[in-house]
């Protein structure tokens, strides 16, 4: 059986869940649901990154002990994903004891193999990024991300011989052209690797930082937060037991934004090489959400919180916007106006109207009872069916390339076609003549097939809407194949795709119309 292991970054607990975290997590959830729907075994991992300077400082600022502080924010992330209906299989915290033991085991292994050494290093250190910067990387002497002058720190530390793996890494990226995707990020990493690769400082003295995992070979030091956090992707699988590492690790699909490309494309694969583990299957890198009003920040008061979006617009509408608006790999703009415009145009109008028109006519003309289809179909009926079959083929291709916006575009093009089919066949006019009643029943039967197909195609993107559609249509996922996941995760549902025209048996009754997406008034702006 095909397998896919999907991961989100482990989010730092110094911020509350916002739009950016939600996007990556919704993409991960969409991929999981999609692969599950085509019969793959899936495993979705998310969690929180809790050690390091940044967290220690945030805890101190809140007057809390770092663990108590991390407990609170980690709980908030987890409950947010629960409320948003994210179907993660496991939630890892880097403060979990099995994770700490795993990190120590790997550190010891790499140390014993001679790839970790003790040395002195002086450099510009940015606390925000938790890393040293070379002078060349600074912009006007400042960290380009935090716009702050870094501190010059000189101290004895442990180093990982990352430089030793440079050629091997270049080979891997060149021979596996989809290891890092989309292409622009692969090119960026290869360009970076053309320069000499320095060794990586992987420790912090406890005189300066206690909030970390102690090095197993020198307890005067804790490990650098990235060396700790990246290992979560394997430690979680090992913790889940069974054959999880063997079966799932080589199928790993990491999802990240471009901000953490270097740790995932350079540190992580070289760490894996040193630890004797295979590389991930794909590093999938998306762009950044930017706000109309500038960088999202608490002080600007423009932080987009997922639960507020869910309460105000519904989770599916928010998911739709995120997946439809951003081309995976490129930056996208977020604004309430754009969100509301999309909801009104694509969801309330195109999809919502289609659903309510079809169910209203079915109710009005036939009390909801589905009319049988004859063997002879009109050309427009066949075209309608073909359009949806074509949309599904396109969707499959786009999903393999993480082009969610194009996948949705393909579905909406079929929705537009269905709306035109109604205008073209004009069942409301036909119905006026009793001789045409049977044709009206057939037209509506085809339209119910449209809705049934949509309930399947939209499932990964808008799970609640897909469920609502099935309920309205009285479609039961009968004959589901239940395959127990090896890790006690969600069991797999293989939804049989009965042929168009063969699903609704004579006498089948569908429900009356329901407004799935109410129109939203645009807030008045000054
Ligand atoms: O970097 N647009 O955690 P983090 C799109 N702990 N995505 C965004 C975003 C934005 N404006 N802002 C954040 C860390 N993200 C480390 C990761 S992994 C072993 C350790 C998303 O809390 C995006 O996925 O800063 C980005 O890569 C991630 O949040 C950074 O989360």
Strand order of the largest sheet: 3-2-1-12-13-7
CATH homologous group name of the largest domain: HUPs
Average pLDDT for all residues: 93
Please give the CATH architecture of the largest domain: 3-Layer(aba) Sandwich
Structural domain tally: 2
Identify the bound ligands.
ligand ME8
CATH topology of the largest domain: Rossmann fold
The SS-based structural class is alpha/beta
**Can you tell me the CATH class of the largest domain?**
Alpha Beta
Percentage beta strand: 15-25%
Instruction: Write down the overall geometry.
Output: elongated
Helix content: 40-55%
Let me know the largest β-sheet. Answer: 6 strands, parallel
The N- to C-terminal Cα distance equals 57 Å
Per DSSP E runs of 2 or more residues, the count of β-strands stands at: 17
Can you tell me the residue ranges where pLDDT is under 50 for at least 5 consecutive residues? Answer: 478-495
Radius of gyration: 26 Å
Q: How many H/I helical runs?
A: 18
Observed structural traits:
single chain; 526 residues; Rossmann fold; Isoleucyl-tRNA Synthetase, Domain 1; 2 domains; 4-stranded antiparallel β-sheet; 18 helices; 47% helix; elongated; binds ligand ME8
Any overview of this molecule?
By secondary structure, this protein is an alpha/beta fold. It has two domains: 3-325, HUPs (Rossmann fold), CATH 3.40.50; 336-478, Orthogonal Bundle (Isoleucyl-tRNA Synthetase, Domain 1). It is built from 18 helices and 17 strands. It has helices at residues 19-37, 53-61, 66-83, 97-112, 166-175, 183-194, 225-229, 232-240, 244-248, 261-275, 306-313, 315-325, 336-366, 379-400, 404-425, 427-430, 437-457, 463-473, and strands at residues 3-12, 41-49, 90-93, 116-126, 131-133, 151-160, 180-181, 200-201, 203-205, 214-215, 218-223, 252-257, 282-286, 289-291, 332-334, 481-483, 492-494. The strands form five sheets. A six-stranded parallel beta sheet has the order 3-2-1-12-13-7, with helices on both faces. Strand 16 (481-483) and strand 17 (492-494) form a beta hairpin. Helix 2 (53-61) packs across helix 3 (66-83), helix 12 (315-325) packs across helix 13 (336-366) and helix 14 runs parallel beside helix 17 (437-457). The longest helix is centred in the C-terminal third of the chain and has 31 residues, at 336-366. The protein is elongated. 40% of the residues are buried. Mean pLDDT is 93; it is low at 478-495. The structure holds ligand ME8. Ligand ME8 binds at residues 9-12, 20-21, 23-24, 49, 229-230, 232, 256-257, 259-260, 288-289.
């Amino acid at each position: 059986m095909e397998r896919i292991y999907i991961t989100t970054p482990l989010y730092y607990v110094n911020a509350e869940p916002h739009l950016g975290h939600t996007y990556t997590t919704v993409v991960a959830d969409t991929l999981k649901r999609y692969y599950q729907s085509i019969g793959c075994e899936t495993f979705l991992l998310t969690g929180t990154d809790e050690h390091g300077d940044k967290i220690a400082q945030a805890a101190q600022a809140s007057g809390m002990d770092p663990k108590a502080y991390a407990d609170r924010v980690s709980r908030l992330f987890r409950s947010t994903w629960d409320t948003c209906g994210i179907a993660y299989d496991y939630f890892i915290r880097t403060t979990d004891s099995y994770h700490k033991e795993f990190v120590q085991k790997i550190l010891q292994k790499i140390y014993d193999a001679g790839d970790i050494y003790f040395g002195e290093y002086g450099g510009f250190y940015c606390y925000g990024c938790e890393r040293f910067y070379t002078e060349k990387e600074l912009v006007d002497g400042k960290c380009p991300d935090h716009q702050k002058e870094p501190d010059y720190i000189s101290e004895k530390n442990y180093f990982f011989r990352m430089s030793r793996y440079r050629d091997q890494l270049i080979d891997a990226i060149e021979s596996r052209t989809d290891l890092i995707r989309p292409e622009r990020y692969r090119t960026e990493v290869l360009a970076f690797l053309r320069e000499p690769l320095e060794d990586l400082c992987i420790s912090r003295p406890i005189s300066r930082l206690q909030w970390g995992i102690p090095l197993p070979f020198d307890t005067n030091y804790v490990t650098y937060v990235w060396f700790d956090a990246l290992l979560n992707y394997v430690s979680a699988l090992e913790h889940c037991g069974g054959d999880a590492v063997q079966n799932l690790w080589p199928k790993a699909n990491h999802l990240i934004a471009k901000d953490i490309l270097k740790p995932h494309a350079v540190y992580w694969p070289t760490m894996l090489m040193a630890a004797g583990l295979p590389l991930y299957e794909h590093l999938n890198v998306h762009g950044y959400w930017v706000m109309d009003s500038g960088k999202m920040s608490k002080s600007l008061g423009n932080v987009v919180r997922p639960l507020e979006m869910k309460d105000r617009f519904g989770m599916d509408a928010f998911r739709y916007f995120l997946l439809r608006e951003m081309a995976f790999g490129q930056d996208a703009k977020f604004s309430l106006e754009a969100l509301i415009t999309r909801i009104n145009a694509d969801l309330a109008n195109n999809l919502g109207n289609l659903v309510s028109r079809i169910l209203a006519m079915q109710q009005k003309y036939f009390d909801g009872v589905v009319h049988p289809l004859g063997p002879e179909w009109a050309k427009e009926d066949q075209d309608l069916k073909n359009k949806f079959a074509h949309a599904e083929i396109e969707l499959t291709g786009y999903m393999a390339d993480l082009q969610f916006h194009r996948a949705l575009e393909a579905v909406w093009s079929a929705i537009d076609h269905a709306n035109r089919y109604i205008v073209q066949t004009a069942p409301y006019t036909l119905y006026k003549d009793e001789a045409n009643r049977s044709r009206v029943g057939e037209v509506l039967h085809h339209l119910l097939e449209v809705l049934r197909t949509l309930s399947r195609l939209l499932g990964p993107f808008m799970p609640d809407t897909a469920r609502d559609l099935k309920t309205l249509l009285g479609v039961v996922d009968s004959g589901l194949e239940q395959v127990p996941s090896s890790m006690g995760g969600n069991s797999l549902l293989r939804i049989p795709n009965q042929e168009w025209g063969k699903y609704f048996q004579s006498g089948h009754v569908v429900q009356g119309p329901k407004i799935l997406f109410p129109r939203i008034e645009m807030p008045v702006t000054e």
